[in-house]
Q: What sequence folds into this?
DNA sequence: CTGTGTGAAATACTTCACAGCA
DNA sequence: TGCTGTGAAGTATTTCACACAG
């Protein structure tokens, strides 16, 4: 049925399961590869099979946000990717600052063209005097003490945090006071923050533990 | 009540919610920091507050695996961490190989002592002739072609995969044929694998998308 | 036919609330 | 009193199954 354009993206916001959102990113990644093979449409069954989900799950997930499909056809890739990007908010650019410019961040900068340019690195900070003045991701590394000033000038709201665990909370308190509302945290600690600030943590040790458990279980 | 020792770790295995397992790793990380402050016991309320969970959730999570607590006291940190490690399988060492030795893996090697030594890097592989012979994580980088031989000699079952997305599936097919049963995948693609092989994917772009969505939602 | 969208049914997971131990 | 362990109740999420569209 595919709904008229104005019917789409109704954003029943309050009630979207969190798990749906995490699948949305996977769908997006998969459809982009599918398109790269020259295919114009994809069905819920095909998309589900690629990711190990049921077709019903795929349809239900999209249904939270409107009607994107065409009965008998499936979903048009270009429409669907645009819709998903709109939902996630990655149809507009996000300005990101790097805080803590060690090896990890340096390595990540080369990685997957930084999410198709939705995320733009506009500044880099470190508190190590030896690093200040060096270049990372095309930006001069600034002293952390100047974060507030630079962030408010550039209107930075999102930060990639990769400082040592021992100082992460104290650094983050300063970031929040400077207006940051989103943090991707690579330090292996839980940050305590006001509810207005969103955090996603990435911890290699945790991922490995989860993998160990999964491997152990599967031998039964 | 704390159950007699032989009552513990009954592992009602089949029915443990997946979400419980992911919290177990968080509990472990938190309790270890708590212990480092010299505290010997922790209550479900205290642990929950640190992570933003309810006390009931914490108790229920542990209850899936037995009785670890002492009414009126809480949980003894050393006992609880040992129990969680036992459940996750990280009380024994895991031999891990690095496949793809680019910047990312090099950076990760310095990170959080590689999970308290449960995970030991025992070999490193790359298909780039320029990298072969170099040293990473104390190991000589070997040609990928020799993976099968080395892996079966050392009995390697777990791999940290960080090769370009375009070759990830083909590389992984070789790894699986060589007996690998657990893969931590840094390539931004979904791997297709037999059900006997476990994968956990880590994709920076996906984490950033999830963060963008969370930030956007919280402004309402 | 193929394939979407969606109520209704089935699961899965979380929170409540309280008995009982130290 | 302080805190665990746990059935029962309440929510959330997934799967089913089918009406309907191209």
A:
């Amino acid at each position: 049925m595919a709904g008229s354009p104005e019917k789409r993206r109704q954003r029943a916001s309050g009630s979207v399961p969190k798990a749906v959102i995490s699948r949305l990113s996977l769908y997006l990644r998969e459809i982009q590869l599918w398109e790269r093979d020259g295919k114009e449409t994809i069905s819920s069954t095909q998309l589900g099979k690629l990711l190990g989900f049921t077709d019903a799950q795929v349809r239900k997930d999209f249904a939270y946000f409107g009607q994107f499909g065409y009965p008998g056809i499936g979903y048009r890739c270009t429409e669907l990717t645009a819709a998903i990007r709109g939902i996630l908010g990655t149809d507009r650019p996000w300005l990101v600052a790097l805080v803590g410019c060690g090896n990890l961040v340096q390595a990540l900068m080369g990685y997957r063209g930084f999410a198709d340019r939705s995320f733009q690195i506009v500044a880099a900070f470190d508190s190590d005097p030896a690093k200040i003045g060096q270049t990372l991701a095309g930006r001069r590394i600034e002293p952390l003490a100047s974060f507030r000033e630079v962030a408010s000038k550039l209107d930075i709201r999102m930060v990639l945090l990769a400082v040592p665990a021992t100082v992460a909370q104290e650094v983050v308190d300063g970031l929040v006071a400077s207006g940051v509302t989103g943090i991707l945290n690579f330090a292996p600690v839980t940050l305590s923050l006001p509810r207005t600030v969103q955090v996603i943590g990435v911890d290699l040790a945790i991922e490995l533990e989860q993998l160990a458990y999964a491997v152990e279980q599967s031998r039964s």
In short: Residues 16 and 64 of chain A are 7 Å apart (CA to CA).
